Amino acid sequence: YSVTMRKRGLFLLCLSLLFLPIVCSTTITIDDSIQYQTIDGMGVAEGWNFPNSTFYPALFNDLGISILRFRLIPELEVVNDNNDSNIINWNNINLKVLSQNWTLGGTPNYIDLLKEAKSRNIPILATVWSPPGWMKVNGITKNGSKIIPGYENEFAEYVVIQIKTLRDYYGINIDYLSIQNEPEVTEVWETCTYSGSELNNMVKVVGNRLALEGINISLYSPETGWPYGFNSRANPICNDANSKKYIGALITHTYGTDYGTSFSVPDSFISIWQSMKSTANSCGKKLWMTEFCRSSQANNDNSWSDGMLMAQHIHNALYYGDVSAYISWEFFDAPEPIINKAGTKFYRFNTQRQYFKFIKPGAVRINTQSGDSNVLV
To answer: Phi first, then psi: what are they for 334, rounded to 5°?
Structure first.
């Protein structure tokens, strides 16, 4: 359960196990005169697996998300609309791709999910996983590679096409935009790589184009997958006033270089959180965590051990990283979901709910101290 205290003070925790009394107490100090970050939102991401309306109560009411992240579909501009990046030829934009069934098990397209979120006033973060293949060196959306030199303005046009399509054809306004998911990662799925200087340059190109179009959406970057590469891509942006002005917050994921160990040892990220917080503070920007959710063993998703580990990861992000938004991956029917098609809610669903449902935008973290290192507050 959650406890809200308005006054400074002390309270005592007394625990019992299996109905046997245990002398177990510690002092928790709460001081609301010392305040830290303000929360922007807590929620989930959906990239390929989109729940139908029968799952909406679990997502919006039970889990209680206050932000939703999704993947922009590169097939919207499957071929170049024309040779002028300043003029959009809507006759060559593949609008029907957004009404296709992109989900598993015959569930609706992702437009339905976005509309439902907006009807509930849930802000939306849109992320580019890859530009269309025709503007990349390797010619495909997958397997990494880079944007062809000289196609930066075409990419900015592509971003505008995505935003205007959702806004003008479906009434969906994007609130936040990330121009590249995990810019240091090459994988068999949709990926595209940027160095720190390349990403910084693209922030300026896209930011300038949005300003010219009168589109008031801040960019969120660098959204690195491995936090070890965060500073090398965040610092060029922070050190360039022309790109920094377009950035709403610095964002990252917190995957480790191994699979299970990094999840099983949440405190191994404490120093990393502190480093990223320092970078964000120096930059004068908030810090967001926009993708992370694993189990201690691949596809072994339903144990209280994993549920409690997930809670500790969220705690450390809030406490040591001062993150203002926390977005987990992935809600529905992914390799490691928190709910499956049968409606089974994994234990990570339950622990995430304790944060997402009760910590809402505008909440402010205050100073707390625990007398026991095993009691996290």
So the answer is: -85, 180
Higher pLDDT: 302 or 212? It is 212
Q: Judge whether 124 and 68 are in contact, CB under 8 Å.
A: yes
Q: Which residues contact 122 (CB under 8 A, 6 or more apart)?
A: 43, 60, 65, 66, 67, 68
Comparing 151-160, 238-247, 294-303, 346-355, the range with the smallest average pLDDT is 294-303
Q: How far is CA 227 from CA 1, 65, 198, in A?
A: 32, 24, 18
Query: What pLDDT sits at residue 319?
Result: 97
Across-strand partners of 325? 41, 288
Q: State phi, psi for 117 to the nearest 5 degrees.
A: -60, -45
Beta-carbon contacts of 331 under 8 Å, excluding residues fewer than 6 positions away, are 44, 45, 46, 51, 59, 63, 337, 338, 339
Average pLDDT of span 139-165 = 98
DSSP assignment of 245-262 = TTEEEEEEE---SSSSHH
The answer to whether residue 111 scores a pLDDT higher than 60 is: yes
User: Could you give the angle at the alpha carbon of 63 between the alpha carbons of 59 and 64, nearest 5°?
Assistant: 90
Residue for token pair 């970057």: 221
Which candidate, 289, 185, 285, places its Cα nearest to that of 237? 285
pLDDT tens track for 340-351:
889 999 999 999
Q: What is the pLDDT of residue 9?
A: 41
The pLDDT score that the predictor gives to residue 90 is 97
Beta strands, E only, 65-209? 67-72, 124-128, 176-178
Q: 294 pLDDT band (50/70/90 cuts)?
A: confident
Q: Which residue has the tokens 């010619």?
A: 139
What is the rounded distance in angstroms from the CA atom of residue 170 to the CA atom of residue 167? 6
**Cα separation values, 344 from 58, 86, 249, 307, 311, Å:** 10, 48, 34, 14, 19
Q: How far is CA 294 from each of CA 95, 222, 291, 334, 352, rounded to the nearest angstrom?
A: 34, 21, 10, 11, 12
